[in-house]
Amino acid sequence: MDRKEELAVGRRLLGHIDCRTTDLAADMFRNQTIAYACRDRAALEREKLFRERPLLMGLSSRLAKPGDYLTEDVVGMPVLLVRDGTGSVQAFANVCRHRGAPVAQGCGNARAFTCPYHGWTYDLAGRLLGATDKPGFAGLDIAAHGLVPLPTVEKHGMIYVRPGVPRPGESRTIDIDAELGVFAPPLAALQLDDFVLHSTDRIAPRINWKFAVDTFLESYHIAHLHRKTIAPYFVGNCCVFDSGGLHGRASFVKNSIDKTRAEPEDERRYLPHIVQIYQLFPNSLLVWQMDHIEIWRTFPKQGDPGVCEVELTLYKPVETTKPDSYWEKNRDIAIRTVLDEDFPLGERMQIGFESGATEEVVYGRNEPALVHFHRSIRQALGVAA
Ligand code: FES
Ligand SMILES: [Fe+2]
């Protein structure tokens, strides 16, 4: 956020605090509970949201050096991401062209990938270097049996992948600035290249993946559910919301912003008192905490709309004098709040959604980020309800 935006957002937040108001959506929004619990809906989401759209895989520092790689199953697509010898990020289906075994496991640094099954080896650009039994595969077109590439792009310190094999005639590139729209410049301004991975946590709560996103999109619940943890630090039910295409950005505010009132208005430093959450459609949340960044990504579990996988990665500045214990404390607060308070209640809500007891949930005008998120989902899926 540049200085002009900082002043504007800070002013809007102080105005809301003074008037006990918050940014409002144009209308309340009703969503069918089947959106959280229906298998057909989950199958449509998998196709439209998790195959056809670019997904944030993390910050560039996850693959710092040539040869650094990571693997991940993205809703049933095994993905291998690697920084090749020229320094470019490449993405492939992690599926051997012999008989389909994953050629890489976990993460690390490699000069080549040797399939554990029969030893076929691929270079960092995905080219098959050779089969291990030459007579058995005499005549095999080696050049035509490289790993299947997936569209990927690295920009503004982020890595994106579209985890669907492009159909004939379909674009093999991702125009990430077009995808991010109005949020491309502020995301570039965050200088995400200057952050390195501190920790990765993964959990599999029994909730729909969208509920895991919902958790972050309103502060209406803070005074109630988080009464004993973070409520004393935050102004509940107060946010400034900006939409940008299918994405959104919610700015939440800490009580400590009151201290800025002693300063002349144009000298105030609002940033230390604001937590900004970029909701990067469809499934990622980039939480800007001023001195560190959390990225939450949530993925539906294949075949079960009532379970998801959630990953929290915490990134710290490349250059920092703060000890690891400081970042651990931040990680602990983030994890504890969500795991001990949000998700356990969410699991009860998921049971409620699946029970058929109610047909709808309703998001209030005071929950504009939620309204925008679910409107965006409908738009991307091409469904009316
Ligand atoms: S499946 Fe990979 S070498 Fe056989
Ligand atoms: Fe919460």
From TrEMBL:
<dbReference type="InterPro" id="IPR036922">
    <property type="entry name" value="Rieske_2Fe-2S_sf"/>
</dbReference>
<keyword id="KW-0411">Iron-sulfur</keyword>
<keyword id="KW-0001">2Fe-2S</keyword>
<dbReference type="Pfam" id="PF00848">
    <property type="entry name" value="Ring_hydroxyl_A"/>
</dbReference>
<feature type="domain" description="Rieske">
    <location>
        <begin position="56"/>
        <end position="161"/>
    </location>
</feature>
<dbReference type="GO" id="GO:0005506">
    <property type="term" value="F:iron ion binding"/>
</dbReference>
<keyword id="KW-0223">Dioxygenase</keyword>
<dbReference type="InterPro" id="IPR015879">
    <property type="entry name" value="Ring_hydroxy_dOase_asu_C_dom"/>
</dbReference>
<keyword id="KW-0560">Oxidoreductase</keyword>
<keyword id="KW-0408">Iron</keyword>
<dbReference type="InterPro" id="IPR015881">
    <property type="entry name" value="ARHD_Rieske_2Fe_2S"/>
</dbReference>
<keyword id="KW-0479">Metal-binding</keyword>
<dbReference type="Pfam" id="PF00355">
    <property type="entry name" value="Rieske"/>
</dbReference>
<dbReference type="GO" id="GO:0051537">
    <property type="term" value="F:2 iron, 2 sulfur cluster binding"/>
</dbReference>
<dbReference type="InterPro" id="IPR001663">
    <property type="entry name" value="Rng_hydr_dOase-A"/>
</dbReference>
<keyword id="KW-0520">NAD</keyword>
<dbReference type="InterPro" id="IPR017941">
    <property type="entry name" value="Rieske_2Fe-2S"/>
</dbReference>
<dbReference type="GO" id="GO:0051213">
    <property type="term" value="F:dioxygenase activity"/>
</dbReference>
<protein>
    <submittedName>
        <fullName>Phenylpropionate dioxygenase, large terminal subunit</fullName>
    </submittedName>
</protein>
